[in-house]
Amino acid sequence: MAHIKICDKIYLVGRGVWGGLTPMTSKFDCNIYLVDGGSELALVDNGEALNIVKLKQNILSAGADFNKIKKLIITHDHVDHTANTWLLKKLLKAKVYSGKGSFFHLKPDKYLKNGDTLKVGDISFRVYNVPGHTPDGICLLSKINGKKVLFSGDTAIGDQPGTGKGIVGWYNALWGSDLEKFIKSIKFIKKLDPDILLPGHGLPLKTRKKCRSSLTNCLKRLKDFGNFRELGSMMPLVWSRNGARKIFDIGEGKELLVKIKVKREKKR
């Protein structure tokens, strides 16, 4: 599988094995999207620096000119989204764009602010800050052929077959996750009411109905996790609507598995 056309002007050209999917590039890659603005191309998230040759092949298979990529847009600064960035920047003489507040001190060519407009050829994106998963998280909204297309990064991954409902990017206080901001960001994305949601991992959501139900489930998941925020992290944490379990390293090669079951009050 070399590329997947999501809609007019948008292609999926890279992804890893997240969610049990067949990888298109490196197995630990995020979803890598190609935006074809005619006179100019862009990548939204850039993946790891392990299979750039395959990434280029996938872009060419979509009928795109690799050398016309002049914008590298980062939804948030995690290595599976950014490691390719500086090599691609050098190869393509492209500009790097990201939100401000990177926990890992990413320094793009331009920081994107809430409400900014970013043009890729004849396509215009409105930029919104969506902190929570990370402090620098952004999403990008455009209208293409009458449909609202939203790049959500890892803020909202949504309902994914075989993985679960309402999947979100890992909450981890060590890299600046903030639960209240996370919930607020999901509510904001829900109000944008996209027709197509393009997450940082997993399968794109291609109907408004799926987007709405997925975002509702994202809120439920975060609110459930909020009952156990003393865990401090979803990583390494297996979390479902029925409960959570986390593995702690207790030394001498031993691990302690803690399971928490969610009990709900019956409706009266």
Poorly predicted residue ranges: 236-241, 262-268
Strand content: 25-35%
Give the SSE order as H and E letters.
Answer: EEEEHEHHEEEEEEEEHEHEEE
Major β-sheet annotation? 7 strands, mixed
Q: Shape, please?
A: globular
Question: How would you describe this structure to a colleague?
Answer:
With 268 residues, the chain is α+β, with helices and mostly antiparallel strands. The protein has a single domain, classed as Ribonuclease Z/Hydroxyacylglutathione hydrolase-like (Metallo-beta-lactamase, Chain A). Helices cover 21% and strands 33% of the residues. A seven-stranded mixed sheet has the order 1-2-3-4-5-6-7. The chain starts with a strand and ends in a 7-residue tail after the last strand. The C terminus is likely disordered.
Overview features:
268 residues; Metallo-beta-lactamase, Chain A; seven-stranded mixed β-sheet; five-stranded mixed β-sheet; 17 strands; 21% helix; 33% strand; globular
SSE layout and pairings?
Layout: E1 4-7, E2 10-14, E3 32-36, E4 41-44, H1 52-61, E5 69-74, H2 79-82, H3 85-92, E6 95-99, E7 110-112, E8 117-120, E9 123-129, E10 138-144, E11 147-153, E12 158-160, E13 164-167, H4 179-192, E14 196-199, H5 208-226, E15 237-240, E16 243-251, E17 254-261
Parallel strand pairs: 4-5, 5-6, 6-7, 11-14
Antiparallel strand pairs: 1-2, 2-3, 3-4, 8-9, 9-10, 10-11, 12-13, 15-16, 16-17
Helix pairs in contact: 4-5
